Amino acid sequence: MRTGKYSRFAWVGICTLLAAAAGRAADATQPEKVVSSYGPINQDVTFDQIKAARMAVKAARAQEHMALLNARYDLSKQPAGKDLMSGGKAIPAGPTARLQGVTWEQFDKLTPEQIKAQGLFPYKPLPFADHAEGGMLFPPMITNLLPRLARFDVDFDLPEHFLPDPAPAVYLTTRPDLGDVAKGRLITIDNYYEIFNGLLNPKQLEGLRLLVTQFPQQQFNATEDRRTDRPSLGVTCFDCHANGHANGANHLVGDIRPQEFRHRIETPSLRGVNIQRLFGSQRALKTVEDFTEFEQRGAYFDGDHCMAAKKGVNVLERGSQVHFMAEFMALLDFPPAPKLDIYGALDPSKASAGELRGESLFNGKARCSACHPAPYYTDNSMHDLKAERFYKQEMANGMMMARDGSIKTFPLRGIKDSPPYLHDGRCLTLEDTVEYFNLIQQLRLSRDEKKDLVSFMRSL
Fold this sequence. Notes:
The protein has helices spanning 8-29, 47-72, 112-118, 140-143, 192-196, 202-211, 237-240, 288-297, 305-311, 318-329, 353-363, 430-440, 447-458; strands spanning 2-3, 6-7, 79-84, 90-92, 250-252, 264-266, 382-383, 395-396, 399-400, 407-408. The protein is mainly alpha-helical. It has one domain (56-458). It has a two-stranded antiparallel sheet. α6 (202-211) packs across α10, α8 crosses α10 and α12 crosses α13. It is globular, with a radius of gyration of 25 Å. Residues 1-26 have low confidence and may be disordered.
């Protein structure tokens, strides 16, 4: 019997081959492994095996990441003249972004669609130093002082001159007469009592003690899958929020999956939390107490409560621990701004001509005050800048450069003390930040106008 020009047996054979090929094609479309929201709880490899595997990829991933940074930025040290942070460190100057065949002025003639199509946008989302791995990462200026925070598998990526003061100044809302209470000292469990005893009531002092107490965290703990050579008691709140401010430490947000869509997040300052009504760059938590609990239960363990149980999560008690910690945080004040009057505006008798021009731009043409009104320069809201209008969604060193969505409006008081800028640190200086918003808002500011805006923000 024949079917067309093929015998029945030949036809069966062809169908079998086609079915097999279709099966192989179907298999090829399947992922190599199932992507899960959960991490491995029952580890089946030893610490030495985990470390060896991580060290095997460390150099290549670091080289790839530094190539990306050097392609995007000029990382050389360029201090901003006589201007200093409130703790005395030089302020970094910019812009640092490397432009590809276009000048800042030529951007004014391009539409967002043209910038996107040509791949010209200089401030794309910034990946973590090893985005596929993630975790908390601390700069050398901190790990040199606190060696327990050094990871064996990932090195910090940004130069120190783009980071805040390693021991930031501390100002108290209750004792403004004291000025900087820290006086160049990094506050830790070893010295907090000596520095603050007599300045705080017992409840506030206990809150501070908890803020400088180590608690287990995803990479810093006693389990075999830690990222420290020795078992660790964990990290403290003030390890990232140094002296209640920030130190450039960063990690990946804990509430986004899968891994490549997670955002790098720079540690924000805790200064002025008493006037803030939203907490977390995208979470819109309503109180600092909620934020404190979230950090311990969520951010410390990448939002994985199963992993948290394995590694020893510290469940804070709301009435006697969270409340005490929040009460101390509410005392952290912005640094003094002697050129501002009681309304948060510049005093014309104290400000320079450039600062005054910058203030006028801030409140006028640049439309900064639409989201950052005086006196604290925040509207306590969230906004979506739709930056994805300017760049393509594509992979960059293990991170998908997707849309950012709505981001909290952070206060600009004391902003000169807080580089790098934006939620992921993609703008290394205030000059970069002005260039970013000039593009995003399509303001078409002149070079002199940008300079004046920076001068004004340094006075806040």
